[in-house]
Design goal:
This protein has helices at about 15-25, 45-50, 65-80, 95-100, 120-130, 165-185; strands at about 5-10, 30-35, 55, 85, 105-110, 135-140, 150-155, 190-195, 195-200, 205-210. It has about 220 residues and is an alpha/beta fold. Bound molecules: 5-O-phosphono-beta-D-ribofuranosylamine (GRF).
C-alpha cells in the first residue's frame, strides 16, 4: 500500500507542486492524497483541484479559538488517513496536541538555515543581520516553533545587491529541490532518528549547496 501524504498549505503552493511532481514522476511508493489550506483563497488550492487532488479549505478566521481550529484541522486531516503530513508553506502555528498526534510523521519546510531565523520574515532578517549564506530547512516538527530534528538543508549565497524578493526567489528554487528530496527519503523509509538527529541510512548528503545561484542561474 502506498504511503499517504497529506499537504497543508496557506498560499501559492509552489512547494506542493514540486512535491506532487516528484512523487508522480519518480514513481514514489506514495501518493499525495489531499491538500488542506487555512486560507480559502490560497492559489495552491486551485492548483491542487486542477491537478485532480482532493482539497479542503478550513478558514482559521471562522474559529473562535486556536484550540477549536486545531481540533477541526485534526479532524480534516484524519479524514484523509495520512501516513505523513507535510507543512508546505502552512503559516499557522499548530498546537501541541496536533503536533504530538503526528509526531515523527509531521514535516515542515522553513525558509532559513535553522536554528537561525525561526518565525516570519526570514529573508529580511537575514539581510539585516548581514549573513552571507541563506537557505531552507526541512525538519520533523516538534511543539517548539521551527524546531525539531533536521532532515535536510539547502544553502544559497547572499549577494551584495540582494533584496528580500531576490533572496526569497533564490531560496524558493532551492526549496523546490529540498522538500521532495526530504519527503521522498521519509516515505521510502530511508531515514532514522537517533538521539534527536536524523541520519540517512545510506549516508546520502543531507546538505544541498547551490553556490552558483548568486549569478542568477537557477
Ligand atoms: C516558502 O518559502 C515556505 O518555506 C514558506 O512559505 C513559502 C511558501 O511558498 N514558509 P509556496 O506556497 O510553497 O509557493
Amino acid at each position: 500500500m502506498n504511503t499517504r501524504i497529506l499537504v497543508l498549505i496557506s498560499g501559492r503552493g509552489s512547494n506542493l507542486a514540486a512535491l506532487v511532481k516528484a512523487a508522480r514522476e519518480e514513481a514514489w511508493p506514495a501518493d499525495v492524497v489531499g491538500v488542506i489550506s487555512n486560507r480559502p483563497q490560497a492559489a495552491g488550492l486551485q492548483w491542487a483541484r486542477d491537478h485532480g487532488l482532493s482539497t479542503v479549505a478550513l478558514d482559521h478566521q471562522a474559529f473562535e479559538t486556536r484550540d477549536a481550529f486545531d481540533a477541526a484541522l485534526l479532524a480534516a486531516c484524519e479524514a484523509h488517513r495520512p501516513d505523513v503530513v507535510v507543512l508546505a508553506g502552512f503559516m499557522r502555528v499548530l498546537g501541541d496536541g496536533f503536533v504530538r498526534h503526528y509526531e515523527g510523521r509531521l514535516i515542515n519546510i522553513h525558509p532559513s538555515l535553522l536554528p537561525a531565523f525561526t518565525g516570519l520574515n526570514t529573508h529580511r532578517r537575514a539581510l539585516e543581520a548581514g549573513v552571507k549564506w541563506a537557505g531552507a530547512t526541512v525538519h520533523y516538527v516538534t511543539p517548539t516553533l521551527d524546531h525539531g530534528p533536521v532532515i535536510a538543508q539547502a544553502v544559497v549565497p547572499i549577494e551584495p545587491r540582494d533584496t528580500e524578493q531576490t533572496l526569497a526567489e533564490r531560496v524558493l528554487q532551492a526549496e523546490h529541490r529540498l522538500l521532495p528530496l526530504a519527503v521522498g527519503w521519509h516515505v521510502k523509509g530511508e531515514l532514522h532518528l537517533q538521539n534527536g538527529v536524523v541520519h540517512h541510512r545510506a549516508d546520502a548528503a543531507q546538505a544541498l549547496f547551490f553556490p552558483d545561484t548568486a549569478t542568477g542561474a537557477p
